[in-house]
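User: Please write out a complete single-protein record containing the residue sequence and its fold in token form, without commentary.

AI:
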Amino acid sequence: MRLGAVIYSPQITIIWGIIADFFKENNFDLEPVFFKDYKMQVDALMEGEIDIAWNSPLAWLDANLRSGGKSLNGSMRDTDRDRQSFLVVKDDFKQISDLKGKKIGFGAIDSPQARLIPIYNLFKNGLEFEKDYKEVRFDVGVGLHGDHTGGETDAAKALMDGEIDVAWMLDFNYNRWIEDGTLENVKILYKTPNFDHCIFSSRVGLEKEKFDKFNEVLNLMDYNNPKHKEMMDMEGLKKWVGPRTSGFTQIIKANEYLNFLANFNK
């Protein structure tokens, strides 16, 4: 079985090498295939060049739309569930309506957590995109769907330097930057509702039994096993869990609001 993964950092090849070795030990031939961005990966999935893709939420949506909902949904990391994006401020803003006319910092153009879902939440709270505020975007790693945190990092630094009024960032990144001192004397003005992150998608026509077996073997990985722990620490999880798609509502709505994928994939 051929599995696609996007190389958003050098450690990705190590991670999937460990996983492939584990699958071999369990009599399952798994061949990782690496891509430079998610569009190339979803293209390959739709063409049947790979059987499974480790997809971002936006790539999951792309695959789901292009397949007419026929792409199967696979395992997720425990940490992919119930994430939030935070709107972080230094000044004494009280509510989102106070941001009218202000400079709002976002991550890369295709980041679900640092741009797309945030823009949808601003809209839901009364601020229209390209009308009621100035978008200041930090386009680092475009094509990686925000897996590269460089855009969020630059937005956080711009907030601290007073170049923007507020900045969006994933909850994990906010917590890390509070701990390491990247962010100081800030507060969270707004938290998005929970959403989910990465998930495995199948090519159209992959036998459900084969896909189920893939997920079954993957879910056998044990954080208490030192070999597995190395990979799981690098990939940011303690347990593989079953699929769900209820956590993708906000990225679906954001895509509809911005007509994003139709324009981005041109």
Notes: The longest strand covers residues 2-6. The longest helix spans residues 11-25.
